[in-house]
Amino acid sequence: MDWSRLQKALELEADRGFSDLLGREYRFSEFLSLSLQAPPSDLSVGDQERMKAIAAQFSRYPDLSEAQRKHLVAETRRVLYQTKRSLEPPEPPLAPKTPKTTKLTQRRAQLELDQAVTYLPGIGPKNSEKLAKLGLHIVRDLLFYYPRDHIDYARQVNIRQMEPGETVTLIATVRRCTCFTSPRNKKLTIMEWVVRDSSGQLKLSRFFAGNRYSSRGWQENQKRQYPPGAVIAASGLVKKGKYGLTLDNPEIEVIDHQNASIESVKVGRVVPVYPLTEGVPADLVRKAVIAALPAVKLLEDALPEALRDKYQLTGVQEAVSHIHFPPDGEALDAARHRLVFDEFFYLQLGLLQRRRQQQQKQTGVVLPPTGELIDQFHTTLPFQLTGAQQRVVNEILSDLQKPTPMNRLVQGDVGSGKTVVGVIGILAAIQAGYQAALMAPTEVLAEQHYRKLVSWFNLLHLPVELLTGSTKTKQRRKLLTELKTGELPLLVGTHALIEDPVEFSRLGLVVIDEQHRFGVQQRARLQQKGDNPHVLTMTATPIPRTLALTLHGDLEVSQIDELPPGRKAIQTTVLTARERSHAYDLIRRQIAQGQQVYAVLPLVEESEKLDLKSAIEEHQHLQESVFPDFAVGLLHGRMTSAEKDQSIQKFRDNETQILVSTTVVEVGVDVPNATVMLIEHADRFGLSQLHQLRGRVGRGGDQSFCLLMTNTRSETARQRLKVLEQSQDGFFISEMDLRFRGPGEVLGTRQSGLPDFALASLVEDQEVLQLAREAAERIMELDPTLQRWAALREELNYRYAKLMGGAILT
After folding, report:
1. What residues contact residue 399 under an 8 Å CB cut-off, 6+ apart?
2. Average pLDDT score, the chain
3. Which of 186, 194, 364, 593 is buried most, with the most CB atoms less than 10 Å from its CB?
């Protein structure tokens, strides 16, 4: 039985939220059930039965609640550790009268990476249950549970030496300790100490909010911990209050009385600050980490020595030790650099391995680079492709001629003409006798693609159909039949395309628009509708290179970095409430010239957030009070599909001159006659999203305007909006957005697909990411199978799966 592999699988499942991860061959629950149902014969009968009982529980794992899954995983980790330990030879008896400190030393020397935290000195079952809330089950978990910050308590002063703004540690004697409920707030408990050292006396306070702290029993218990005469270490930031100097919310630790440990976790050192959760005190985590730290000697450095030397990386044992308790700032920086490098390196190596695996697949869909359909399409277009479009088309057609499936991402700014490029790929598939699918994240965008494709495909006498959640049953049945028989060459749709009833006859090309809005599994399910079809993904959300490497490191990336000729820069202005009349005057002038206007708000109804305008109320206000002479339409996500279609159609036909909308208009509504984009509460949007919204105007030949309304007094928020006044470059804007707001906000955290880094920052550590990518590419050149580096291969399988959710590499 591979005890280490089982423990790693359990650790990974806990890290990824108990979601029953999908591995290379089995789901997590299947792997555990199969592994445990045939336990080793050298186990006792009792242990074998216990293993089989756990195997049976894992066969029901998909039906368990999250709490039940957590309990089963934690219990299994404990049982595995105990069972493995029972198979080891007994320890030789200790010599008589061995000093207690030597026993402790020997006990620490026997630490193992997969040892349950329960058996660490001073932890025990109750504390291990608390640590389990943080996913800390075994020693390895503790070693790699990195601090989120450090506080320097190394500066020890006496009371008279305290200076406001400094973080210090005092050693003082307790004169008095009181604990009481605040007379003003019954849910607030105040604990006060009067302490004294040789230089003076000081009052310290801490506050505890919540009913459980107001009980008499809790308060009496707290006072008993700090009896008069006890020596304490008090650490924190010195601040000046109305009663003089004190420490702000100090950390207090008894270091000398009858029941106290003399060794303090804080005094005179740099102290790690760990991410915590309810019911898990900071000192418990520090205590557990200190107990686990001797096990760093068991960590094997998986990075080849030549690679460590080239990039001047400290050893993994030293790095892990110093990330927790660094001797100085230089050691902390070196430790962090190494561990950040590791996080990026294993991700990049995994992505490159995934690309290699994709390239080893074979596809029967080998397409000619040109043909009658593509030639016809070029003649029907009323414009010439830009140089950038033609370059990307050539890259796509070159991919389609190879026996390995294409896996290419096309990035292009708003209005750069990605759809035309995608259509040429689709026509290459159709003219070779294959079918194509185009999937978009919203009905509005799918509808927009469908309309554009119908206008082009009608000229080529080719059918195209649309499938969304709103498609009527009769129409759905008809198009699914035509798809299965091969009569229908192209199907456009939303997530509805990945449902089971959708069957293609010969799917040759999958095109996915705004692909970051889909999960990995959703994209994979569409690919599985064919036999290794080519995949082309597109996005109008330009993202910085650091994000592209992290998200798309396994893809070939093409950039359309040139706008069609004749496009004028959109004049963008940031306005305050006092300048609103200027915005309304511009709108009137534009409508008088026959143009149209978008007015975008972040919310639908006022009740969602009281200080933001409601789209519904703003529609009524503009129609009745501001522009009674014009027709004002409304579009928002809570409308039915039929209502949305009607609203968009009226705006297209210029029956409404102003369209009040939520961000549903961000992609998919293409009206060349619209020249003004008014965005309310612009400071509530990200720069990339504002740039997307701005791209809804300026699609014709007329000068267009984007008006960013804001009431914010925040200078940072105003500076952020000024970026849009100064630039039309989506890549630059997204880079600035990344720096202002971080990657999760730029991409949309839920569907971003971003890995969970423990230390690395895609904003602060861009240079390290580039180095890690370079190192990963070098390793792949030397040995793409990693056969010569067994430890590196094993660590990659573990790390990559942990970061990306379970797909362990072969």
Report:
1. 406, 408, 534, 556
2. 83
3. 194
Residue 589 confidence (pLDDT) above 90: yes
755 closest CA partner among 604, 577, 553 = 553
Residues 405, 410, 415, 419: what is their CA dihedral angle, to the nearest 10 degrees? Answer: 0
pLDDT digit string (tens) for 434-451?
999 999 888 888 888 999
Domain ranges of the chain: 3-143, 155-268, 386-392+417-539, 571-727
User: What is the CA 589 to chain-centroid distance, rounded?
Assistant: 44
From the CB of residue 310, how many other CB atoms can be counted at a distance below 10 Å?
13
Least confident of 195-209, 588-602, 611-625: 611-625
Question: Over 80-117, what HEC string results?
Answer: HHHHHHHHCCCCCCCCCCCCHHHHHHHHHHCCCCCCEH
Residue type (1 letter), 797 = N
Q: b/e string for 583-606 if b means 16 or more Cβ within 10 A?
A: beebbeebbeeebbbbbbbbbbee
Q: CB–CB of 394/671 below 8 Å?
A: no
Q: What is the pTM assigned to this prediction?
A: 0.67
pLDDT over 50 (residue 98): no
User: In what helix (H) or strand (E) does residue 485 lie, and over which residues does it extend?
Assistant: helix 473-485
Q: What is the pLDDT of residue 103?
A: 41
Percent of the chain with pLDDT over 90: 33
Burial class (CB in 10 A: 0-12, 13-18, 19+), 42: exposed
pLDDT of residue 106: 42
CATH number of 386-392+417-539: 3.40.50.300
Is residue 450 packed enough to be buried (19+ CB in 10 Å), middle (13-18) or exposed (0-12)?
buried
| Contact criterion met (CB below 8 Å) for 363 and 533 | yes
Q: Which residues pair with 477 in a beta bridge?
A: none
CATH numeric code, 571-727: 3.40.50.300
Cβ atoms of 570 and 632 within 8 Å: the answer is: no
CATH annotation of 155-268 = 2.40.50.140
CA 690 centroid distance within chain: 21
Q: Which residues contact 675 (CB under 8 A, 6 or more apart)?
A: 590, 595, 596, 597, 697, 698, 700, 702, 703, 704, 705
When pLDDT is averaged across residues 414-433 and rounded to a whole number, the result is: 90
